[in-house]
Amino acid sequence: MKTRVLRGHSTKPAGEKLFYLCETFISLQGEGRYAGVPSLFIRTGGCNMRCSGFGTLYRVGDEEKLGCDTWFAVEREFVTEWEAIEDISSLTERLVYHLSELHYVPHVVITGGEPLLYRNDDTFISLLEWLDDRGMKITFETNGTLVPDFDRYPVYRNATYALSVKLSNSGESKNRRINPDAIVSISQNALEAFFKFTLSRSAIENGIVDEIEDIANIPTSRVPIYCMPVGESREVLEKNDRAVFRFCIENGYIYSDRLHIRVFDTTQGV
């Protein structure tokens, strides 16, 4: 496995929206429906949420903050550590380098941050089409608040969507974390979709099942529900995993572990 953090600077005019990239690497998918499947990960920078309720402690300069376990791909203060992608030529060269080490075609996981921030970006679309043309199965890991234009960009119809819709334990307000129109559009137009909820023991004890069911009932047809424990480290996972395990049995949901954290004790580059 090779891990590469990508860095760079942009020459686009000030104020023009950019497609930012944090890292690319080959690993196994650690979560959800395709857990254990060899995958090429493409992690974008930037997110429309902070999820302070998930409780991962990190530092920005002299300030300590709480947020999600991929804080390095969320906080705009880290933008100097991200690469601004203006065309895909250099990026695809790197992807070819990764793929040349393999004798098979892996899945592709596009994650973040929130990758669908770039859903209308020409460079991002070109990357998706490049991957799709090579027969690579694409999964978006998204919070389900942003809607791809399935008619204008048919490549979005060929993808799987892991809808990591945030619950109240994320610390985000309901109107920010739930977009029913986006959930319905994705569930109706995607090749496949599934919900993936991140739970702590305390959230379960506080009756979060009602929130999950409310979200699950938004689509007109039932979308599979995966639940996984909160945790940016093995230690934190182990505080929550048994409660989530029992919760899935009680409610008929699918348990998802977080294999990369179990093995490497981190969320970055694995």
Tell me which CATH architecture applies here. Alpha-Beta Barrel
Q: Which spans of ≥5 residues are poorly predicted at pLDDT below 50? A: 1-16
The CATH homologous superfamily: Aldolase class I
- The overall number of domains is 1
CATH topology value: TIM Barrel
Tell me about the biggest sheet? 10 strands, mixed
Per the principal axes of the C-alpha atoms, what is the gross shape? globular
- Order of H and E elements: EEEEEEHEHEEHHEHHEHEH
CATH class: Alpha Beta
Computed structural class: alpha/beta
Rounded to an integer, what's the Rg over CA atoms?
18 Å
- Total beta strands: 12
Could you tell me the strand content as a percent range?
A: 15-25%
N/C terminus separation: 9 Å
Roughly how much helix do the residues carry, as a percent range? 25-40%
State mean pLDDT (0 to 100 scale): 90
